[in-house]
Amino acid sequence: MTSYVYDFSQGGMDQKDLLGGKGANLAEMTGLGMPVPPGFTISTDACRAYLAEGQQPDGLAEEVTTHLTALEQARGKRLGDPDDPLLVSVRSGAKFSMPGMMETVLNVGLNDVSVQGLARVAGGDERFAYDSYRRLLQMFGSTVLGIEASIFADALDALKAERGSEDDLDLTADDLRGLVRTYQDLIREHSGRDFPQDPREQLDLAVLAVFDSWNTERAALYRRQEQIPDDLGTAVNICSMVFGNGGEGSGTGVAFTRDPATGRQGVYGDYLVNAQGEDVVAGIRNTVPLADLEQIDKAAYDELLAIMARLESHYRDLCDIEFTVEQGKLWMLQTRVGKRTAEAAFRIAHSLADEGIIDFDEAVDRVTGAQLAQLMFPRFDTDSERHLIGTGMNASPGAAVGKVVFDSPTAVERAARGDDVILVRRTTTPDDLSGMVAAKGILTSRGGKTSHAAVVARGMGRTCVCGADGLDVDIAAGRFTAADGTVIAEGDTISIDGTTGEIFAGAVEVVDSLVVRHFEGDEAAGDDELVRAVTRLMDHADSVRRLGVRANADTPEDATRARRFGAQGIGLCRTEHMFLGDRRELVEHLILAEDAEQQRVALDALLPLQREDFTGILEAMDGLPVTIRLLDPPLHEFLPDYTELAVRLAIEQEHGEDQPRTHRLLAAVKRLHEENPMLGLRGVRLGIVIPGLFTMQARAILEATAARTAAGGDPRPEIMIPLVAAPQELELMKAEIIAVAAEVEQETGTKLSFLVGTMIELPRAVMVADQIAASAEFFSFGTNDLTQMTWGFSRDDVEASFFSTYLDKGIFAVSPFESLDTEGVGQLVAQAVRTGREARPDLHLGVCGEHGGDPASIHFFDEVGLDYVSCSPYRVPVARLEAGRSAGAGSASA
Ligand code: ADP
Ligand code: MG
Ligand code: MG
Hints:
binds magnesium ion; binds adenosine-5'-diphosphate; eight-stranded mixed sheet; alpha/beta; eight-stranded parallel beta barrel; 47% helix; 894 residues
């Protein structure tokens, strides 16, 4: 027979799937002999069965009875007994904590009769008994009967106002007795039924309400955003009540074994005398720092500190704790491995490893690339004066300061004048795109992490805070009002923190990341404790990882930075920017050339410039591989815009000065126009159609290589042909490159060493990867294009138009451009790896799409056996860390 219910003495911390996080940890503490009020846990199995069948599963009621009876015997009281009632709390607790999503009901078992019994056993303390009863009515009313919580809060506030007090503690026993009657009336009025007086009925209804709370809309939304599976269900913990609200000798508190903000050791937490449950976090009365408990109740304080030390060494991590002191007796109500900031995560992992409590593999596993990325963003100076006016969701990290604008045209216009602007909207739509591009940061008052604003901002790397619902945004009036009454009008400056979700009035000073300064060679930064922790963990990650990390860099400056950040070469050097700026004219010559001779002249003019570009990059990356991609984008990208040209021509004609060149350019733009440029004349197709283009680039690379070699350097170029779909394309290009190499060797008298390979970014290339590998010495997966081509959507258009809807509907949990679609696109990568290596065992394999810097994707690339990932210089440390974590996780599970 399966059982659905487990006593706290039966389980342990490894059973979070079955008992939920709260239940598993209550059981663990019980097993450690800590003072946990006795109780039992109804498992997630029961919840899943209930949600599937729509009714309590068979046998559950009987099991609850058995465990309840045992609990009653242990405590020597019966649930809701009129003379001396046992009271319990009914507490939700899923595998992953979902703060504020599901509810807890305290003091179950009280009714109009047992409340008097409770008062009698509490030495005639009616105030305490009625305070407990009104709390039950309030929580039961809102959680179980679905009555708006504010209805109860308003009644309480009205009563306090009547008594001329702000403090719950000023209410007398009579006041609270009256409040109980008011609450019972409100329950009848709003739910159409009386508050159930039968204790067991209260219990059963509360349990089902907790089960049901798994499926509320907000819980489902939270899960989607946090990527928590929908089918886990929640456990329910029935825990005998202990009372922190029985006078000055009692109280309730929260504690952390280390500071969750900084990771430092010490005594952190808050305590509230004469209070119950969430009073301490609800901010209704002023708490005192935990350290003050030493004065208030030394014995309880000492015991708590001893338990905290034991919990930390038992869990080998920072723990957070809820506790209550009942008439001098300490009770532990909850513990779990606590949430922490990125800074604290690194400090704690490092310090635990340093103390030998965990090993460095585990320390590296306890920090994430996302946390490291947070530490690398510039941030607001916490020491400077800041006026917090609201908090929203941290949708896209960074620290942005600017003048508020409420619409896109104004954003564009102000940005063009050189202002930094923050675009503030209720929500954004594709129409806001130009404003989002122009803004330094985006702030919305509605929508979550998958809203349009959040998705697009992340895609563009813009700082974004979304869903700040405390702000009242009035677009028409050009202002917003914060919850504290602060009014911000268009043109006023605000600061938004995309890492924490905080919004500040005025300009907050921005400071550079010490971690970045350290990577960039600032020696003073290396003394910082946090930087030391990061460096130590990074060193370990480097020592265990198999996967190489290269950078995408197009200039010697970027290459140099990437090297400082630990890049082991360049995985993608794009050459298109080398065709822009003052070289545009040369490129125009090439495009307008009317015969082979004119084309050759144009290419000859570009050759020395390209050679110089490559010399600089090969020098910056001396001794390390540099993968250079030959020209990829469609040519029209190098020509002026059609409308712009048409206007120019019209003006020229009006003055009777129209230039033949303008006519020719316009004709060329027309000729090169493509309906689907991403599927048009680009990549290797350019190399094949424009004779001499790729050979000019190859010659520039090889001449630069020869020059570097002659100068005693160690250049290691890898020439990469983009957008290959057929092996013949690569064969043709490779033959030309080999011929050029022979010429350059002859001309310079230098022996050249280089590779020729291809990008794999078209599904067809994957299908014929074995044939392509016959001539390719390396593959580099261009996962941006491979994603576009596999899904059949254009990144430039779809992210802004329908991705937020797709994310909301759960078609994918994260944009496939942000994190590799391992089920689809990833399978293509895996297949090409396999067939490519079969055809050429020493085939070198890497990835150069933006996925190369994404943590989840990096783990996948490691698993399928790529040799390296390549990402932007700033992501290099993130990739190194994640590659180390991936290797560590592999060895741990092996
Ligand atoms: P959450 O998941 O929101 O933390 P909890 O189930 O921990 O909810 O309960 C809410 C509050 O009630 C917490 O402060 C907790 O410590 C307190 N509480 C829960 N059960 C009991 C109990 N049996 N006796 C006293 N206080 C309790
Ligand atoms: Mg809560
Ligand atoms: Mg809790």
